[in-house]
Amino acid sequence: MYAAIRKFIKSLLYPLYEWRIVRDLDFSKTPHHVGVILDGNRRWAKANPNQGDPNGHKAGASKIIEFLGWCDDADVRVVTLWLLSTDNFKRSASEIDELLQIIGDTVDELAATGRWNIKAVGALDLLPEWLSQKLNSLKPIRDDGVEVNVAISYGGRREIVDAVKSYLSEEEKSGHSLDQAKANLSTEEISKFLYTAGQPDPELLIRTSGEQRLGGFMLWQSASSEFYFCEAYWPDFRRVDFLRALRAYSLRQRRFGS
Could you tell me which HAMAP family the record lists for this protein (predicted)? Predict the structure, then answer.
């Protein structure tokens, strides 16, 4: 009974708390690109066994459109969502099959809204053909609004390796020798071949579930990023949690190595 009363009181107070955070936010300092590690689905499922979602993946997927709406409201322009890492393939075949199907359905739902340009980033060659074809067929549908990168079969080290391979292939196509390719090699050149080429690097990276590590997420792009770690599991991530992350970011003095 007391737990229900506390929950009711919180439901009354949170709108006021959100309003106070929004009032104090400096939206001129909103990050242009936010990356999110959607972590904690399975732990959420264990904590909520009555929800009938044994791995929590459906609950996590249902949060995505709501979250992107918050990003729209905050004028974030690019969002990268880490949905599946290359390491996740170590899980059981049944869980991976379920997760891949949910990811495919989620991509369809995002595209059907017509609200965002959806781009798949990752080692898509590791995915089953039906899903890789679906992801490769995604096309820009508008020239405004939030761009959404869905990081699927993604690993930061794999991305850098792929970028270097693509760079060397382009040098070879241009008729350059290995010595010429080495002379031309620079951070700017490698950046042209990253999965997120042409997009700004993320200013803010958020990880849910209380884990305080990036786990290889956007290794190259996060060199100057600010990090925000939230205790909530991803399915429980609320708008107030997102606003807290934006507030924390706006209060930081970004030094860029100085």
Answer: ISPT
